[in-house]
Amino acid sequence: ELKVEQNPLFLSMQEGKNYTIYCNYSTTSDRLYWYRQDPGKSLESLFVLLSNGAVKQEGRLMASLDTKARLSTLHITAAVHDLSATYFCAVDAGGTSYGKLTFGQGTILTVHP
Amino acid sequence: GAGVSQSPSNKVTEKGKDVELRCDPISGHTALYWYRQSLGQGLEFLIYFQGNSAPDKSGLPSDRFSAERTGGSVSTLTIQRTQQEDSAVYLCASSYKGRETQYFGPGTRLLVL
């Protein structure tokens, strides 16, 4: 059974600082997603990572994938308040999974002035 | 263009009653997914449709849960004889084909009293 673990689960940051959220998964996968969720809202797609060594960047967020280590990271650069949200990684195990996603627990990010 | 829509946005029901939740996917998307989000269990996969058929129903928690999709478009998730543990946010997502980025609807917040 595929398990996906994120850490930290709670992250309180000061504006302007850098930090990294980690996402570990337990079985081989060739497809990993990062989503953002604001309170009371649905999930917004941020990145899809499709191969080992893939790196995607959008604004202050950068995501990477190491399929050999079964690890993805979401790096936050010079955090701003607008980045406060819950971030989920989700893994598509491939094969007969038909794109079914297994989600991590989510990381609640709060950015303080 | 229009995103994934779900109705109702909120539903309060009494234990033992049946409820129907509706999902309208993005036009042209052949794959449709239902997930459930609750405090205790996080985000869980329920069922996947490709066209009108459901090759993967593995996430449905009990035989009280069923879903159908008609015309390759609208899907309905039905919960019979609701229980308090069914209280959660039910999220629908669609993708152009299976194994591509899933776009989520706003969810239906279900409360069973």
User: What pair of chains forms the biggest interface?
Assistant: A-B, 24 and 25 residues
Q: Categorize the overall geometry of chain B.
A: globular
Q: Report the radius of gyration of chain A as a whole number of Å.
A: 14 Å
The assembly state of the depicted protein chains is heterodimer
Question: How can the largest sheet of chain A be summarized?
Answer: 6 strands, mixed
Fraction of residues in β-strands of chain B: over 45%
Low-confidence spans of chain B: pLDDT under 50, at least 5 residues? none
The main pleated sheet of chain B reads as:
7 strands, mixed
Mean pLDDT over the residues of chain B: 94
Termini separation of chain A comes to 41 Å
Order of helices and strands of chain A: EEEEEEEEEEE
Q: What is the average of the pLDDT values of chain A? A: 93
Rg of chain B is 13 Å
What portion of residues of chain A belong to β-strands? over 45%
Runs of chain A with pLDDT <50, length 5+? Answer: none
Number of helices of chain B: 0
| Helix fraction of chain A by DSSP (H/I, runs of at least 4) | under 10%
Topology pattern of chain B, helix = H, strand = E: EEEEEEEEEEE
Instruction: Report the end-to-end length of chain B measured between terminal Cα atoms.
Output: 37 Å
User: How many extended strands of chain A?
Assistant: 11
